[in-house]
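PROTEIN DESIGN WORKSHEET
SECTION A - STRUCTURE
LENGTH: 343
TOKENS:
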């Protein structure tokens, strides 16, 4: 029996004073037992959970998942000032399959319904498809794909920032990682960027996602060390390093969202695309510049094998973080845990 937890990073300073309301009302759906502060809220989350369960399975697999044998407990905590969630899976060691799962999410109602819930539900789709632990980069990257436009753009921008700051993880290392690096947010941002790139490369939509899942399946062979074969047979790259070059090259263009804004409104100049990103989008002092000379350093491995980080411990500064921690460029930053917001 293997226990696996997939935390969603907390999105705000955990040190902030946060008010929360505990979950003591229950609502049961076909596949979930929802615990929430009020009955109407439990019902709403139950309905959304079922809706996303159907929708995300169709997005990724082209069909609904069969009804789960055991309902998944889903605990809703309404909090101010921090957002996150975690889904814990127990996998069978004897044959592919999920033995049990449970989900806990916390944040504002809107953020939970918009982003956190679809993210966590996507973890269940991937877990049920593979019946075993999914490589962390793809598990998180694929789940971030289910978040709203704003969160996805945010991860896209972060990925560019990390690459520019030398915090990127070489793909041959990222692909083979079974646990989170200490620089956890890099795995999320880069995992998202690479997943998005490969899905688009595979034709986008369901077609692109299916191809991506087949690629993962091949890569996961030989103890998650079959990636050279996987990139060659599914995407026609000679090597993983070669794929990395092409992926980086694709980031030379500005984030799609900003580009489309510039095109449709003329309100974003080329200069502002290559400098701080997002005044146009409200991302103060953040850089969405295409990576100039990205340096991909080996990651600092944080958690011990088999252990799983607690997402409650993993708060990272949200937008505007550049204001409080103005530079990511010092190589020393690689040695700092990313989860401790600086004052
Ligand atoms: Zn996640």
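SECTION B - SEQUENCE
RESIDUE ASSIGNMENT:
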């Amino acid at each position: 029996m293997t226990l696996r937890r997939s935390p969603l990073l907390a999105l705000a300073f955990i040190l902030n004073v946060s008010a929360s309301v505990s979950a003591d009302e229950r609502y049961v759906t076909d596949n979930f037992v929802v615990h929430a502060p009020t009955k109407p809220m439990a019902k709403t989350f139950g309905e959304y959970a079922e809706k996303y369960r159907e929708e995300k399975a169709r997005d990724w697999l082209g069909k609904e998942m069969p009804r789960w044998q055991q309902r998944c407990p889903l605990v809703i905590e309404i909090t101010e000032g921090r957002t996150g969630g975690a889904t814990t899976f127990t996998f069978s060691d004897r044959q592919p399959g999920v033995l049990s799962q449970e989900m806990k999410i916390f944040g504002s109602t809107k953020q939970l319904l918009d982003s956190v819930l679809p993210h966590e539900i996507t973890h269940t789709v991937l877990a049920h498809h593979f019946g075993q632990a999914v490589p962390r980069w793809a598990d998180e990257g694929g789940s971030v794909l289910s978040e709203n436009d704003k969160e996805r753009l945010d991860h896209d921008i972060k990925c560019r920032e990390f690459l520019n700051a030398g915090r990127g993880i070489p793909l041959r290392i990222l692909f083979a990682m079974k646990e989170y690096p200490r620089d956890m947010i890099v795995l999320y941002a880069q995992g998202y960027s690479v997943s998005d790139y490969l899905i688009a490369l595979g034709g986008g939509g369901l077609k692109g996602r299916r191809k991506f899942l087949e690629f993962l399946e091949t890569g996961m062979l030989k103890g998650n060390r079959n990636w050279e074969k996987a990139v060659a047979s599914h995407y026609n790259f000679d090597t993983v390093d070669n794929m990395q070059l092409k992926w980086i090259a694709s980031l030379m263009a500005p984030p799609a969202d900003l580009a489309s804004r510039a095109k449709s409104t003329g309100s974003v100049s080329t200069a502002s695309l290559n400098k701080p990103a997002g005044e146009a989008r409200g991302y103060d002092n953040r850089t969405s510049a295409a990576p100039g000379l990205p340096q991909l350093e080996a990651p600092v491995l944080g958690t011990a094998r088999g252990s799983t980080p607690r997402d409650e411990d993993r708060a990272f500064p949200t937008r505007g973080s550049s204001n409080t921690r103005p530079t990511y460029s010092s190589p020393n930053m690689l040695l700092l845990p990313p989860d401790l917001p600086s004052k």
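SECTION C - NOTES
The CA atoms of residues 31 and 67 lie 7 Å apart.
The first strand starts at residue 2 and ends at 8.
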